[in-house]
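My current task is to audit a protein record that another person submitted. What it holds is a sequence and that sequence's fold in token form. Thanks in advance; the entry in question is below.
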Amino acid sequence: MRDFSYTLRPPAETTCVFVGPLADVPCEAPARTGCLVADARVHASFAPLLDPFVARLVARPADPIVLPAGEALKDLAAVGGLWSALSARGLDRGSLVVAAGGGSLLDACGFAAATYLRGVP
């Protein structure tokens, strides 16, 4: 029987998961511009924690984008609206998008960020 085994090596840049207070999240150098994208419930409850967090990660944070939570975000029209909102805030290829919310918002925001201007962090 032929050996089909192989070794997996993670790429040099991998996604890091941090568990702990937002104030302890490491930040080497803030992005020039960026913004928070949050669902309305999360933003209403956690803006006092999220706004200073984004301010640590982004030198000139734009106004947050607050969206309704729910599966309706997983739609190309909703993603198009998110692209328009990112553009209206002047985000460019060096900008950072920070998402906070439930699974639908995180899915939609991750897709929008990955495809906005060929991808932003």
Summary: The CA atoms of residues 3 and 100 lie 45 Å apart. Helices lie at 40-57, 76-88, 103-115. The chain has a mean pLDDT of 87. Strands lie at 31-39, 58-61, 65-67, 96-100.
